[in-house]
């Protein structure tokens, strides 16, 4: 705690900021004292440039907390402040109950270990030796490595999968292998808390997953970890909670399902994103589209696309083509409805993830009149109906003779925009924006 | 194998090599003396305490008897008296001085290369050698002004009574420490000493002191020859008292550095990483810098600026034993001692004696080029 005695009498972590200000992260003093890592009202600036302000964060036992946010949001800064390698302007960092500022480097090194983004070693130490350095905070000045230390080193190397090249030089192993060596070093440190700064940045898919599963296992055994992760899908998949750091502070904090929403990502990353569910894991999966089109144009596009451009749209179509259109339009902020789609269709799943109104009918059965009317009713309320990939042409033919489920919907539509699989994202967004020109006007 | 075990094995081997170098060196010179006779002469000169002698003291009732040790030489080999005098009185102090200075420079160079994470660093990088040179040259050029009497407030005039050689060494030592402290002070802000700033401050101070040395040389007049000789580095004329003075300083500082060998390893990962691994970074850096500056100052105070020992010896040893300072530091110190003993033997073996600095540079520069042309220079 940087300040002197506070008004609170119990002498524990005095809240310099009124506790009432706390929104998201953890109920205050007692929880902070119990946490492996507790950050309160952290403010850091480099010179006159503020990096983060008022960051609250806690990592408890058995908890893997993901720190996500755009480049330059201050993820590494927060981690460095927790490590103690960067002095905060104000605020407090507590490690396992004690103020980090009061701990010696050695004591801090027994409480929290960190895996840095990268390391530079000009001298060719062997991998085993680098991992052994993790034992430093446990050794007295004149101690040699004991049996405990050797065991910790071997276990850490096995767990991180570096034992195979333990006797190679650290300068000769690949970037991904080197990152795992650093992980092994942190594991050998045997601390209750782990800080990981982009632990999977240079790892292949297999090792990225293995690394996070390893961290997950350690956390499930009672440790706590804070990981800055770029890959939002990975963060959603492995973290208990996610803290979104953006625009100089904590934007949102909570379980992945609550925090990773299209709206939150738009504010934090200034990017359009669709948040779906990964069919393989059931966890949120984020697809970012950038700020709507070509990078060079993004500023003017941002200016052009404000609330007035948000349309109320109905989508007719099915399969992956329609699914893609729904995701892209939802990411752009349009309010959607979809139907009629077969139950279980990719487009239906995507529409539900996007929070759109969905009219679905059992697959492989004739669609009853009530369902068709429900879809038509939705289409009637919209600014335009988007017809994906030829479904519209089928429907028109249907008008001529056969009944198709979409006939009523198309008849009800005020305007129709035709999209096919070859239409790229920019053309899609332009089409629904410039409804006056490109769209066919239909009279019901 | 455990690091300390490896260190012991390597050190034992290199210690044997150092002893061999000393014996061979003592045999070489205008008068050739067989190595066996050298060993006998040295052993004859060894005195060990063999008993306690008490002498009844004066007449007072409470006067305790005077107590002293009785020394005796356990060896009495038949050795030619002149040979014994040459070996023990002339060659051995110079050879031991070479061993001490070589060990001091090599260990300081090892520490500096690790400290700066730069394989091209050497002990002079923090201005120590330049500072020593300014001190020594100033004393040589203005001996009267600097040596005879010093007026101190409260105490009055004090005659320091320095002999010329002792004065040069003392001023070199003081100059070395002053320069190192100056570099440190320039590079330190708010209790932190960034290594890059330290490096640049060292360059700046060395450049400035170089100007001072050049100016002093212009003013040197008749003493210019002695100035140049000192600047090139030399070991001639070492006496037992100078060896003793150096021996008091160098080994304890070496042990201090050795105690911090593991911290130095961790510092190689980068200061942030070292902090995360429980090393008190700034304090460790101060200790390493201070001890390196002192040990280098002790080395150059007598011998002058001897280049390349502190650069190439750590390098070769790193190639041989690896970068672990627990092994590297003792082996580099022993090898540095052997290297300078050998170089000085070459320097004095010819018909005209060369300053040893010329020999080390003549061997060192080609090696430096070799390093540059091979991949041993990973990063600067």
Structure description:
The complex is a heterodimer of chains A (444) and B (380). By secondary structure, chain A is α/β, with parallel strands linked by helices. In chain A, α5 (147-160) runs antiparallel to α6 (175-188) and α12 runs parallel beside α13 (346-353). The radius of gyration of chain A is 27 Å and the shape is elongated. Chain A has helices spanning 28-34, 75-83, 105-111, 127-132, 147-160, 175-188, 205-220, 232-238, 256-259, 262-269, 298-304, 319-331, 346-353, 369-380, 391-400, 407-412, 425-433, 435-438, and strands at 37-46, 49-59, 63-68, 90-95, 98-99, 112-115, 193-197, 224-228, 241-246, 249-254, 272-277, 284-290, 312-316, 335-342, 357-361, 384-388, 415-419, 440-441. Chain A is 36% helix and 23% strand. The longest helix of chain A has 16 residues, at 205-220. With 380 residues, chain B is mainly alpha-helical. Helices cover 68% and strands 6% of the residues of chain B. In chain B, a hairpin with a 3-residue loop joins β3 and β4. In chain B, α4 (128-141) runs parallel beside α12 (281-303). Chain B is globular. The two termini of chain B are 31 Å apart.
Give the strand tally of chain B: 4
Strand order of the largest sheet of chain B: 1-2
Shape of chain A: elongated
Q: Please describe the biggest sheet of chain A, giving its number of strands, its sense, and whether it closes into a barrel.
A: 6 strands, mixed
């Amino acid at each position: 705690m940087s300040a002197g005695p506070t008004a609170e009498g119990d002498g524990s972590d005095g809240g310099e900021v009124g506790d009432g200000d706390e929104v998201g992260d953890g109920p205050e003093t007692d929880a902070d004292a119990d946490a492996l890592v507790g950050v309160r009202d952290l403010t850091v600036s480099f010179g006159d440039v503020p990096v983060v302000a008022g960051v609250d964060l806690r990592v408890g036992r058995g908890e893997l907390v993901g720190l996500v946010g755009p480049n330059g949001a201050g993820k590494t800064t927060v981690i460095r402040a927790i490590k103690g390698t960067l002095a905060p302007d104000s605020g407090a960092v507590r490690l396992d109950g004690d103020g980090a500022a009061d701990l010696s480097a050695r004591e801090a090194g027994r409480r929290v270990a960190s895996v840095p983004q990268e390391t530079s070693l000009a001298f060719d130490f062997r991998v085993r030796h680098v991992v052994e350095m993790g034992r430093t905070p446990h050794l007295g000045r004149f101690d040699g490595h004991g049996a405990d230390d050797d065991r910790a080193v071997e276990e850490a190397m096995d767990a991180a999968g570096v034992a195979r090249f333990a006797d190679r030089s650290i300068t000769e192993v690949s970037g991904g292998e080197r990152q795992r060596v650093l992980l092994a070093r942190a594991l050998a440190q045997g601390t209750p808390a782990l800080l990981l700064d982009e632990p999977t940045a240079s790892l292949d898919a297999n090792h990225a997953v293995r690394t996070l599963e390893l961290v997950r296992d350690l956390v499930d055994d009672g440790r706590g970890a804070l990981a800055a992760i770029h890959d939002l899908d990975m963060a959603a998949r492995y973290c208990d909670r996610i803290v979104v750091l953006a625009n100089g502070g904590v934007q949102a904090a909570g379980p992945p399902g609550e925090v990773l929403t299209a709206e939150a990502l738009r504010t934090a990353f200034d990017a359009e994103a669709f948040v779906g569910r990964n069919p393989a894991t059931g966890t949120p999966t984020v697809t970012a589209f950038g700020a709507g089109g070509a990078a060079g144009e993004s500023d003017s596009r941002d200016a052009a696309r404000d609330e007035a451009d948000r349309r109320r749209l109905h989508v007719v179509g099915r399969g992956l083509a329609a699914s893609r259109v729904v995701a892209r339009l939802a990411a752009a902020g349009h309010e959607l409805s979809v139907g009629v789609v077969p139950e279980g269709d990719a487009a239906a799943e995507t529409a539900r993830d996007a929070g759109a109104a969905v009219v679905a009918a059992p697959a492989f059965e004739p669609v009853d009149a009530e369902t068709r009317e429900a879809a038509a009713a939705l289409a009637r309320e919209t600014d335009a109906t988007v017809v994906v990939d030829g479904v519209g042409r089928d429907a028109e033919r249907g008008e001529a003779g056969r009944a198709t489920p979409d006939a009523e919907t198309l008849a009800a539509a005020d305007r129709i925009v035709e999209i096919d699989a070859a239409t790229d994202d920019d053309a899609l967004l332009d089409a629904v924006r410039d409804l006056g020109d490109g769209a066919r006007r239909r009279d019901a | 194998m455990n690091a300390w075990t490896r260190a012991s094995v390597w050190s034992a081997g290199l210690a044997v090599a150092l002893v061999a170098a000393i014996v061979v060196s003592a045999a070489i010179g205008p008068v050739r003396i067989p190595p066996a006779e050298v060993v006998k002469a040295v052993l004859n000169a060894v005195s060990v305490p063999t008993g306690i002698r008490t002498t009844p003291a004066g007449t007072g009732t409470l006067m305790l008897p005077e107590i002293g040790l009785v020394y005796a030489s356990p060896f009495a080999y038949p050795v030619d008296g002149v040979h014994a005098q040459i070996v023990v009185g002339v060659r051995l102090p110079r050879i031991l001085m070479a061993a001490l200075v070589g060990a001091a420079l090599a260990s300081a160079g090892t520490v500096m290369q690790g400290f700066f994470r730069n394989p091209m660093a050497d002990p002079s990088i923090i201005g120590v050698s330049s500072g020593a040179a300014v001190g020594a040259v100033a004393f040589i050029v203005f001996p009267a002004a600097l040596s005879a009497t010093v007026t101190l407030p409260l105490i009055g005039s004090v005659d320091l009574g320095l002999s010329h050689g002792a004065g040069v060494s003392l001023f070199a030592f003081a100059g070395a420490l002053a320069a190192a402290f100056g570099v440190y002070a320039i590079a330190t802000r708010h209790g932190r000493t960034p290594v890059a700033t330290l490096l640049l401050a060292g360059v700046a101070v060395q450049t400035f002191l170089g100007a001072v040395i050049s100016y002093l040389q212009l003013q040197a007049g008749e003493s210019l020859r002695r100035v140049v000789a000192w600047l090139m580095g030399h070991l001639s004329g070492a006496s037992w008292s100078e060896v003793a003075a150096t021996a008091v300083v160098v080994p304890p500082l070496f042990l201090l550095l050795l105690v911090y060998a593991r911290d130095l390893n961790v510092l190689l990962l980068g200061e942030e990483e070292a902090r995360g691994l429980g090393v008190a970074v700034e304090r460790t850096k101060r200790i390493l810098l201070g001890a390196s500056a002192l040990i280098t100052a002790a080395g150059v105070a007598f011998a002058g600026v001897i280049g390349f020992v502190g650069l190439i010896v750590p390098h070769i040893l790193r190639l041989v034993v690896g970068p672990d300072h627990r092994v590297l530091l003792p082996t580099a110190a022993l090898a540095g001692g052997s290297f300078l003993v050998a170089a000085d033997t070459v320097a004095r073996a010819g018909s005209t004696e060369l300053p040893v600095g010329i020999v080390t540079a003549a061997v060192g520069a080609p090696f430096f080029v070799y390093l540059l042309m091979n991949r041993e220079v990973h990063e600067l």
